[in-house]
Amino acid sequence: MTATPLPRDFFDRPVDEVAPALLGRVLVHATPEGEAAVRLTEVEAYAGPLDPASHSYRGRTPRNDVMWGPPGHAYVYFTYGMHFCVNLVCGPDGMSSAVLLRAGEIVAGQDLAQARRPRSSVRDLARGPARLCQALAIVREHNGLDVCDPASTLRILDGVPADPATVRTGPRTGVSSAKDTPWRFWIDGDPSVSPYREHVPRKRRPAGRA
DNA sequence: AGGTAGATGTTCT
DNA sequence: GAACATCTACCTG
Known about the structure:
mainly beta, DNA-binding
C-alpha cells in the first residue's frame, strides 16, 4: 500500500461508480496506540435526497450535515444505541450521496484490532459496518474528517483495486426501503464479506405498565 | 445451521 | 414515541 491517499476527484462522480471502485482500497486510522488498516471488501451506495434509503432523503439535518459537504470526507453516525458506521461522501458537493463501508479484511494493526474486539475471530474483526468501526476505533468524533488529506489521521489509500470481474452486486442490507436497488457491492468469495440480512422491523418492547 | 431476544441512545416526527 | 444502514449471546436442532 502506498502512503498517498486517493485524490479527491476519485469521489467526485456518481456514487454507484465510486462504490465498486472502492473495493480493494485500504482505509487507515492512526491513533495514539498505533495504526490499523482495513482492505475494503464490501460497500453500499446511498444516493442522497433521491434515495429513500439514504440518511439525507428527508433533507439536511444536524446529523447528516457532512453528507452535504465536499466529497472525500467521512460521515460517521451512531445507531442502535451502541454502534458506529462510517461512510465516505461522494460528489458533487451538495449532492449528499455517500458510500457505507460495510466490511473488510484487517491488513495492518491486527493486534490493535483484536485488542479492540477481544471476543472476535480474526475473520470477523471487520466483518460488518459496526465491527469495522470498532476494529479501527472510529467513533463520533471522526465525523467530517478529510480522508483525502495526507495529514489526516483517517485516510483512504489506493491499495490494489479489486478486479472488476470479481465484483458482485445485490440489494442493500438491512434497509427497509428501495429494496430492489442493487447497490451493495462486494468481492465475490471473500471471507470477510458480511452475511446478508434482510430488514426486519424491530419488535416493540412491551411498553412499561404503570 | 439458524432463529430470536436483548442491549443501548440518538434522531426525527 | 418509534424507528434505527447492528451485534452478541443464547437457545434449538
